C-alpha cells in the first residue's frame, strides 16, 4: 500500500511514523517499531571493528566508536570523531535517517512516496542546507525538512486542534524549544516570530535530579556494600529513574528499585517530592515560552492554545506552570514522544496531496498611497525546504564546510557492508 514517512531525529531518541494511502485520503499516522518492537531507538551510532554501522546503544563501553548528540552539532565546523575518523555531524544524521528509511522500506515492502524530516525550529538555511546535501549524497532526494514546531502543530491538528495561532512547547531529552505557529490559507502551519531554546535542558535533567535524591537516601547503605556490587547498581540507576519519572506522570507515588548486593532496595518517591526537585528547571522553560510569546508582540489571550511535545511534556507540573503563565488551553498527546514524528507524516501527506487553498475572506479595498497605487503586502516566505528528485541540492549562502570523510573510510564502507540495528 502506498505510504508516506515522517521522521523525528531527536538528540536522545529517534521516532518514525507512516500514513498509508486509502483511496483519495490518507490513514491516521502510525508509529513504526524501529528496534525490538519499540517505537523509539536511541539517536546513537556505533562503528564496529569491521566497519559496519550500528544504530542504538552499543553492547560495549568503547566510547571512541560511539557517537551521540550529533544533530545539535550540525553547522559546527569541528567534526566528531568516530573510530578515529573525522565525521561531519550532518553525515551522521543522514546515516541515521537513511537507516530509518531502509527499516521502514523493509517493513512496508517499498519506498515512501514522500519523506518529511523534522529539525530544530531555530535552524537557519545554512544548517538545513548542510543536512539536505548530506541526505542527497546518501540517495535521499525526496526529503522535505520542516521545523519541529510545525510538525508538532500538524500532529495536534490531526487530533482535533482547530486553532489558528499557537505556542509550541517542545521538551526533549536534553533540549527545549519554544516557538509560535499559525495556520496558513491552505490549512497547514508555519512558524513565525523568533524561536527560543535552552540547551542542554530536558528530561535527562529530571532523571539526574531523581538519581541524586536516591543516592542521598542510600548513601549509608551504598557505602557499606561491596564496591563491585555498588557500581553495578548505580549503572542501572538512571534508566530506573527514567521509568519512575514516567510512572509519576499518572501515579502519585512510585518506588525506585535497585538490586543491591544485600538485596533489592526500594526508595519511595511521591509526585510532590519529584516535582519539588524539578520545579526550577520547568519554571525556566515556561519563562522562556512566555518571553517567546511577548517577543512576537502577542498577548497571551491571542493564543488559541499551547501545544506540547516531548517525553517529559506529560509531567503534570509542566501543564500546571504553563496554565498559570498562559491561561489558554494546553494540549498534550498520550505519547508525546511521537508527536513530532506523527506530525511529520501528516505533513508528508500534504506533500503528495496538497490541500486546496481556502478562500480568502473578503476585505475592504486597501487605501491608495503615493501615485494612486494600492499598497501590496509583502509575500510570505515558506519555512521549509524540499529537494525535488533529480535536482542538485541548493548551495549554502556562505561556503564554510566541515571536514568530510575520506573516500576510503570505514564509515563510508558501512553502506556496502550494511547497517545493523
Automatic annotation (TrEMBL):
This is Hsp70 protein. Keywords: ATP-binding, Chaperone, Nucleotide-binding. Transmembrane segments: none annotated. Pfam families: HSP70. Residues 353-400 are annotated as: Disordered. One of its GO terms (molecular function) is ATP-dependent protein folding chaperone. The keyword Nucleotide-binding applies. SUPFAM superfamilies: Actin-like ATPase domain. InterPro entries: ATPase_NBD (IPR043129), Hsp_70_fam (IPR013126). It comes from the Bacteria. Residues 390-399 have a biased composition (Pro residues). It comes from Micromonospora cremea.
Amino acid at each position: 500500500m502506498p505510504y508516506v514517512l515522517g521522521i523525528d531525529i531527536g538528540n536522545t531518541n529517534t521516532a518514525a511514523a507512516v500514513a498509508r494511502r486509502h483511496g483519495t485520503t490518507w490513514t491516521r499516522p502510525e508509529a513504526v517499531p524501529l528496534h525490538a518492537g519499540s517505537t523509539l531507538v536511541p539517536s546513537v551510532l556505533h562503528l564496529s571493528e569491521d566497519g559496519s554501522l550500528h544504530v542504538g546503544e552499543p553492547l560495549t563501553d568503547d566510547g571512541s566508536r560511539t557517537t551521540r548528540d550529533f544533530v545539535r552539532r550540525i553547522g559546527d565546523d569541528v567534526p566528531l570523531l568516530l573510530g578515529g575518523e573525522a565525521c561531519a555531524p550532518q553525515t551522521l544524521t543522514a546515516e541515521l535517517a537513511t537507516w530509518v528509511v531502509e527499516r521502514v522500506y523493509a517493513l512496508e515492502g517499498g519506498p515512501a512516496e514522500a519523506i518529511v524530516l523534522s529539525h530544530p525550529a531555530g535552524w537557519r538555511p545554512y544548517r538545513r542546507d548542510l543536512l539536505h546535501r548530506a541526505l542527497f549524497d546518501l540517495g535521499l532526494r525526496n526529503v522535505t525538512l520542516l521545523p519541529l514546531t510545525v510538525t508538532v502543530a500538524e500532529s495536534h491538528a490531526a487530533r482535533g486542534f482547530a486553532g489558528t495561532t499557537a505556542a509550541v512547547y517542545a521538551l526533549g531529552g536534553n533540549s527545549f524549544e519554544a516557538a509560535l505557529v499559525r495556520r496558513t490559507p491552505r490549512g497547514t502551519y508555519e512558524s513565525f516570530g523568533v524561536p527560543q531554546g535552552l540547551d542542554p535542558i530536558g528530561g535527562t535533567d529530571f532523571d539526574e535530579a531523581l538519581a541524586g535524591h536516591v543516592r542521598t537516601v542510600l548513601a549509608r547503605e551504598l557505602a557499606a556494600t561491596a564496591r563491585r556490587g555498588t557500581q553495578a547498581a548505580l549503572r542501572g540507576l538512571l534508566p530506573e529513574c527514567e521509568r519512575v519519572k514516567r510512572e509519576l506522570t499518572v501515579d502519585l507515588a512510585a518506588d525506585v528499585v535497585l538490586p543491591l548486593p544485600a538485596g533489592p532496595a526500594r526508595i519511595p518517591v511521591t509526585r510532590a517530592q519529584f516535582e519539588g526537585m524539578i520545579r526550577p528547571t520547568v519554571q525556566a522553560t515556561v519563562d522562556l515560552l512566555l518571553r517567546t510569546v511577548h517577543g512576537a508582540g502577542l498577548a497571551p489571550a491571542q493564543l488559541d492554545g499551547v501545544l506540547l511535545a516531548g517525553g517529559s511534556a506529560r509531567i503534570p507540573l509542566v501543564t500546571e506552570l504553563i496554565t498559570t503563565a498562559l491561561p489558554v488551553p494546553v494540549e498534550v498527546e498520550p505519547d508525546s514522544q511521537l508527536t513530532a514524528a506523527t506530525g511529520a507524516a501528516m505533513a508528508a501527506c500534504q506533500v503528495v496531496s496538497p490541500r486546496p487553498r481556502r478562500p480568502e475572506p473578503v476585505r475592504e479595498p486597501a487605501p491608495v498611497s503615493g501615485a494612486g497605487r494600492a499598497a501590496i503586502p509583502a509575500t510570505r516566505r515558506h519555512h521549509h525546504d524540499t529537494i525535488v528528485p533529480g535536482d542538485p541540492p541548493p548551495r549554502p549562502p556562505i561556503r564554510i564546510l566541515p571536514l568530510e570523510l575520506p573516500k576510503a573510510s570505514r564509515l563510508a564502507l558501512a553502506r556496502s557492508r550494511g547497517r545493523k540495528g
